[in-house]
Amino acid sequence: MAPAAITSLQEFKKIIDGPKPVVIDFWAPWCGPCKMIGPVFKKLSEKSEFAGVDFYTVDADEQPDIMDELQISSMPTFVAFQGGNKIGTSLGAIPKNLLELIDKAANAAAATESPSPAPAETQSEAPVAVSATV
């Protein structure tokens, strides 16, 4: 799914506090590197292997309160969150670093989705011998 725009600090806090990992692109319309990496971010958001991650964008000019909250001053900056905790950050228009961040978020998603294995059952009784007569 294509990245959705975050339009308020309240919405931002609700999104990052959720159980599902999210990766957010902090960008600005006047930022040349943002324009270069934006399509890469969108394309990665549509890959099936990242279905467990939600993707969002924050326009720095329209959401200065979010930028202040995270103390982001350079763009593009990509930040991954899960359950209110920062998973990681990628600075600049470097596709390799962005992919590594998204992989990290996808691994966090997989870790929360897969249930822990059940403990091995223990047998408290001695095995019973079975004999068959023909």
UniProtKB/TrEMBL annotation:
Sorted UniProt keywords: Disulfide bond
PROSITE patterns xrefs: THIOREDOXIN_1, THIOREDOXIN_2
Entry coiled-coil feature ranges: none
Keyword Disulfide bond included in the entry's annotation: yes
Domain of life: Eukaryota
Segments of skewed composition (Low complexity): 110-122
Domain Thioredoxin: 1-107
Listed InterPro entries: Thioredoxin-like_sf (IPR036249), Thioredoxin_CS (IPR017937), Thioredoxin_domain (IPR013766)
Disordered: annotated span: 110-134
Any matching Pfam family: Thioredoxin
Protein name: Thioredoxin
